[in-house]
Amino acid sequence: MGTKATARVHRYCRCFFSATTSLTAFRVALVVGTVLNVINQGNALWGSAALSLPHLALNFLVPYLVSSHSIVKTLNPD
Known about the structure:
- Helix 2 (19-40) packs antiparallel against helix 4 (53-75).
- By secondary structure, this protein is an all-alpha fold.
- It starts with a helix and ends with a helix.
- 81% of the residues lie in helices and 0% in strands.
- The chain has helices spanning 3-16, 19-40, 42-45, 53-75.
């Protein structure tokens, strides 16, 4: 990997893991993940089926990652 690419990856990671990005992505994931869990696991949440913990985690993790990536690409469009 060249110096330019390495610098770009470093800048991406620094922005991705910054406190501002993390807090914003956490808020988005909290709202979107809750809605997704109600939609996808409503039966389990209301007691008529088993709750899937991997699905529960993914319903929060995916919006967090997508939101974080979107923030980084908005701030660093290169």
